[in-house]
Design brief:
The chain is of the alpha/beta class and about 220 residues long. The chain has helices at about 15-25, 50-60, 75-80, 95-105, 150-165, 185-190, 200, 205-215, and strands at about 5, 30-35, 65-70, 85-90, 110-115, 135, 170-175, 195. The chain binds D-xylitol-5-phosphate and zinc ion.
Length: about 220
């Protein structure tokens, strides 16, 4: 099965956001991954609601919004109104995660839970059936262009086992440092969705790079 591809707009040229979104529109990308950083949960600030609206205005692909922010509950409705189809919140930022997931669903969006590299997948055991995807961080969140953390493969396998054991249909998304070398191994371990930022936008031909990611085979 080919992976779903979610290029991260964080790595795009923000001065030409319309052009960059149109490149993704004409590619085989399945989603546009939108990274929101608040300078509190992560040590970087990206952009917020108006820029998400601007991306949505030109996008022909669904927006997969990754909230790297504290108190995400306060902003769910605003991001949904800005065009988010999928809203992922961080496990580490949500003391009442089940309630937050319910709130995302009540807005008509798909609910994702992102986990940092040190967070064990087993902590999702009692919420896995209620969520649409797990966004597994394969770098420490906050910056694009970082090196992929190798421990991710075993986390993906363990998460896949957990999903199957619970009879859930939750998708596994991998976020950070994804490229053509690690993508086949990630798929074999059980990944469904691959986020790719710098690998796509730093390449000479982003459309062709997305095509290559889409065509990867399991190893
Ligand atoms: C990291 C972000 C990622 C990032 C991926 O904090 O959540 O989505 O943009 O970028 P690359 O593919 O360059 O690691
Ligand atoms: Zn992300």
């Amino acid at each position: 099965m080919s992976p779903l591809i979610a290029p991260s707009i964080l790595a795009a040229d923000f001065a030409n956001i319309q052009k960059e979104v149109e490149i993704l529109n004409s590619s085989e990308a399945d989603y546009i991954h939108v990274d929101i950083m608040d300078g509190v949960f992560v040590p970087n600030i990206s952009f917020g609601i108006p820029v998400t609206e601007a991306i949505h205005k030109h996008a022909k692909k669904p927006l997969d919004v990754h909230l790297m922010i504290v108190n995400p509950d306060n902003y769910l409705e605003a991001f949904r109104n800005a065009g988010a189809e999928v809203i992922s919140v961080h496990y580490e930022a949500c003391p009442h995660l089940h309630r937050t997931v319910q709130a995302i669903h009540s807005l008509g969006a798909k609910a994702g839970v992102a986990i940092n590299p040190h967070t064990p997948v087993e902590l999702l055991s009692d919420v896995i059936q209620d969520i649409d995807l797990v966004c597994m961080m394969s770098v420490n969140p906050g910056f694009g262009g970082q090196k992929f953390i190798e421990n991710t493969y075993s986390k993906v396998s363990r998460l896949k086992d957990l999903i199957l054991a619970k009879g859930a249909v939750t998708k596994i998304e991998i976020d950070g440092g994804v490229n053509l070398i690690n993508a086949p191994k990630l798929m074999t371990a059980g990944a469904d969705i691959l986020v790719a930022g710098s690998f796509v936008f730093s390449s000479d031909d982003p459309i062709q790079t997305i095509h290559q990611l889409k065509r990867i085979e399991m190893v």
